[in-house]
Amino acid sequence: MIDSLPPGGIMILGALLIPFLRGRLAAWWTLALPVLGFFHFWSMPEGTIQTLQLFNYELMPVRIDALSRIFGLIFYLAAFLAAVYALHLRQRLQQTAATMYAGSAIGAVFAGDLVTLFVYWELTAIASVFLIWARGTERSYRTGMRYLIIQVGSGVLLLSGILFRLSETGSLAFNHFGPLDDPGTALIFLAFGIKCAFPLLHNWLQDAYPEGTVTGTVYLSVFTTKLAVYALARGFPGTEILIAIGVTMTLFPIFFAVIENDLRKVLAYSLNNQLGFMVVGIGIGTPLALNGAVSHAFCHILYKSLLFMSMGAVLYRTGTIKASELGGLYKSMPITAVCCIIGAASISALPLFSGFISKSLTMSAVAEQHHFLAWLLLLVASAGVMEHSGIKIPYFSFFAKDRGIRCPEAPLHMVLAMIVTAALCILIGCFPGPLYNMLPEVTEAYHPYTAPHVVTQLQLLLFSALAFTWLMLSGIYPPEQRSVNLDVEWLYRRLAPNLYTRMARAVGRVHGSLERGVQSQIATLINELSRYLGPQGALSSSQSTGSMALRVAVLLLAILVFYYFF
Amino acid sequence: MDNEGKYIGADKSGWFDDPKHVRIVLYALYAACALLLVADVVLYALLHEHPHFNIEKIPGFYAGFGFVAFVVIVLLGKQFRKLVKREEDYYDR
Question: Which of A98, A258, A329, A499 has the most CB atoms around its CB within 10 Å?
Fold first, then answer.
């Protein structure tokens, strides 16, 4: 029976048991599930395919190939690390949701047909919203609602796209879709784009992730958007427009990240920027570029969850995550600080850290295809990553001005999760071979550690750090301030409700005046009628049957005359 | 405000509280930057690599680019803030 379960199935079914377990047992069970699930998945060889007959359609709930396998591996690894990080949780709803969310994301990666993909797609949306709602505040409730509407909306678009395609091509297979010239394919592209936080469709990410629970956001940062990256890599490799979309994604979040005060929101903008690099790789679509996108997703999942873990630990211990209230925490939380710096070094693509060996692939692919503008802009974006994730996150939380906060180091299991994740970031950065061997496309051997490459990358990063030093010492660097910065969400959080209120008021006014007008008309009508039909009215007086017959006769005559002449 | 776990007053001084130590870090950064510029020239003389774009042939291109891009990003961010910054409870009102 276990054999026929899809990968991810053990986690989804196992999650259903969590509500019946208590305390520690539930916590250890959440930890055991990714391990059991991983061994089950790893026992399935590459090339495994399971099919299922549904009415007249053949579905493929499981397809294991090189691309899905590497995503499955990193999803299981991240789910396990997040479970270690969340070991203190005693909220069974949140534990169930997190496990089910991870399981359904894993299931989605192995979907060989679009119906299976859709089912998992919606399951991730529904399971993940509980990681936001679990905070239990009015604010998180509203944020979760907005998140759910957008995520489920993405699923609805996906389903409409699937149906369009089915009627056009008769196929439900989830493979390369081809050009974006029919409505079905375009709808599917849009659905993927929402989950991948394309520009203008991105804001749910920065709205929702900072509102998640301490542990929930670690889960959130791993699955949803990388599932979308996987889906794009599977369905739309080499789609030219993705290059422009990706470059835009790497650039605009930088400016929000510079001025954002909530450090988990800075990470959410930074996540958006990282997705941009992957999207560019998919858009270029050469084997090297696709490998770049996949390896970047792999490494990114690790260092991004590491960064969210460290900021989560700060939030857990100090009760705040606002840069304007933090500083000097390296004294109280030295291990968290070191792990955060390792995450920051990895995301900035410092040599010897994981970001360097993955981002290089994409950058080389862009250069090889001679996309000069894209290359130049990605270089700007790389300096931007150094700014917001490389420097700002660790500097303003652990160093900068000591705000006098003294707290214990993060709990043991959190520290453990962070240390293991940090170790993986360094290990992959120093020994990229095993990761490169798992990549789906076959290319000639890639060597990230050439002298010019290391020197140029170090120049880019260290001179960025030099610029930061100068800006800080000269006082030009903008201070951290408590604020909300307007983004696209303004359209649906402010403009639309305002318009609605205004419209409702206008309609109300028109309705009111109409009502008054009609009321006075009706009153006149009633008056008139009662003049004739009222007790004293001419028409209600009692009259003889004869006069009545006479009237009818006159009426009939009038009708006859009318018909005769006309 | 949720201030759990926050207690003020323990005067634990850290390594970076000493301005001397901060200066050590800064000098190390300056030295590393200088060294990288030298390495650039040496590599250029030794390797005769053919980069993908002509712009990469400018000595110290990446160093200059990193510095300028960083400053421009921060300065633009400062201007951008004037445009989009609102009170913290903007959406709650």
Answer: A98
Cβ A407–B6 below 8 Å, yes or no? yes
Q: pTM (2 decimals)?
A: 0.89
Question: Looking at beta carbons, which residues of chain B come within 8 Å of A487?
Answer: 84
* Beta carbons of A478 and B74 less than 8 Å apart: yes
| Contact residues for A375 (Cβ-Cβ < 8 A; gap 6+) | A363, A366, A367, B52, B53
In chain B, whose CA is at the least distance from the CA of A253?
B77
User: What's the whole-number average pLDDT of chain A?
Assistant: 93
Report, as ranges of residue numbers, the positions in chain A whose pLDDT lies below 50.
Answer: none
Query: Per-residue pLDDT for B92 more than 90?
Result: no
Cβ proximity of A478 and A259 under 8 Å? yes
Classify burial at A372, counting beta carbons within 10 Å of its beta carbon; exposed 0-12, middle 13-18, buried 19 or more.
middle
How far apart, in Å, are the Cα atoms of A469 and each of A2, A397, A403, A434, B77? 57, 17, 21, 37, 17
**Distance between CA atoms of residues B6 and A404, nearest Å:** 9
Which residue blocks in A319-371 are alpha helix, DSSP H?
334-347, 354-368
Q: Hey, is A6 helix, strand or coil?
A: coil
Cα distances from A283 to residues A247, A277, A374, in angstroms, run 10, 10, 11
C-alpha torsion A140→A145→A148→A150, nearest 10: -110
Q: Which residues of B12-21 are buried (b: 16+ CB within 10 A; e: fewer)?
A: eebebeeeee
Residue bearing tokens 């009545």:
A548
Q: Give me the residues of A, 321-350, that contact B with CB < 8 A.
A: 328, 330-332
Let me know: does A286 contact A365? Beta carbons within 8 Å. Answer: yes
Chain A hits for B12, Cβ within 8 Å: 331-332, 406
pLDDT, position B2: 41
Closest to A296 in 3D by CA, of A285, A313, A316, A280: A280
